[in-house]
């Protein structure tokens, strides 16, 4: 009340709503102009409009006699646009830029809040606006000038060439036949930017007549801004309460709501969902979840929902698989859609997904390769089908993601029977489409049961291995004692006091873990090059018995000699690998099973005439120490001994050498000119195991 007393009402004005120019009145916003220039004095040469697009073009004359007008600039622009010739197609017939075009654009998308007001004799007359257009200068004449410039350049270039060259210029023409346009392709074409631009360009211009501010026609049209009847009967919209009147005059803005970001399509608001009909709620839920038990579906729909109505609606959008509801294929792949991976139409996708669903009605497991072989679809589409309703299991296939719902099956036997009949019909269609065999129709329950025990956990495997060790330990111990007794009888001369010597034996523990060395597969049961249960030699206190060392040395020397005669250069790592392969090929009880150390192997390599090549590898190399030790046979007795020795000397100075350096060094040292093929042959023969 205090504020009202401070701001008293001075005058009350009657407000009238004029309807004569409803949906015809536009507000034009002109660009900024010089202060000395008013649009009342501007001559409008022409005007045209496209009503559907609400697009206007106005052509206004420019006062060339104004002292602010640059005449030389206007003549230059006219010359660039029209050239020297003057005809009906010229933009500036006076050879002077004496007019300018203005094009409109919509200033606001929603103009229902705006009106034009006229105040007269204590009355305010309002007329709603149909559009607000902003006029901006159009510079299409610059495009025309550029086109003229390109034409002149093309004419100049064409004039330089002779007439004969122009006649000889033959261009190849490619003829293409367009295929029939599909409905999906037509929809994409209609929604494209080029098509919309073409549609807008096809709308014809409607030419208008411009009447000045002081023209009699303008004065006549201006009278329509006033309400034709002041009676209250014709202005029933204003017989409202003050709040309703303000609401009509200033409706709430909806632009802010439109600017709010939309939620992702896969995110549901439960509050908005429950405002939809029950059938739409179930369809949206099943389309997003894809597989759901009936109890969970009832929980999402909220308390008080009739289960009978839910059952009636869910059967329209889902099928029963192992007591759970799976969304139908035609809901996920509507008509006139296609696969995002392969472009296959929706009908083919629905058949393939129905086949996967039907397979899960027969068994809990489905093999992806079998589905792909039957449906002939790409792997990405098949994977999408399986991910909708199953989970991948290693070494078994794809398992249905939910357990069998026995409660629903027991409570609703009529629904189950009806769904079984539907699946029988689907099976009959699939048999005709895919020509299914008996192996596809028969459930593989027995195979699944027989295959189940083969999947054993790691702990079970360890327990099984321990039990097997305990079972065979006694037999292995007897065999070991027998072989040890035979060895003692054969070497009694070298061990006169063998009865007084105590043999050191390590206890065997069943808790010892399995050996997982890198050479396990090559050793074939060897531990450090020795068969634990079949070795004929028994080291006594860590030493080999007399007479055995010579035999081991002879066998080892024979292996090293034969190996280096085949491969002249070897690393220690490669030599140990070949030695393990050699041991694996020997029969049980061979003398080399007594145990060969790395030092013994390297000493034997040097004794057979080989040399160690100290290759200067870079310090940051990732090679192991055994790979850095390189041994080579210095003299093999063939024609390439000298070449091989030169190569080894080269690589002892640098680990990486260019081919041309090797070629020049070989030619210099050996006194013969070697070509590229001969150098390659020398490298291949000498370093076949390394390069």
From TrEMBL:
Q: Where does the DNA-directed RNA polymerase III subunit RPC5 C-terminal domain start and stop, copy by copy?
A: 444-689
Residue ranges for the region (Disordered) are 146-169
Q: Name one GO cellular component term.
A: RNA polymerase III complex
Q: What InterPro entries is this protein classified in? A: RNA_pol_III_Rpc5, RPC5_C
One GO-annotated biological process of the protein:
tRNA transcription by RNA polymerase III
Q: Where is the composition biased (Basic and acidic residues)?
A: 146-155
Superkingdom to which the source organism belongs: Eukaryota
Instruction: Please report a single Pfam family linked to this protein.
Output: RPC5
Q: What is this protein called?
A: RPC5 polymerase
Q: What organism does the record attribute this protein to?
A: Molothrus ater (Brown-headed cowbird)
Q: What is the lineage of its organism?
A: Eukaryota, Metazoa, Chordata, Craniata, Vertebrata
Instruction: Tell me the name of the encoding gene.
Output: Polr3e
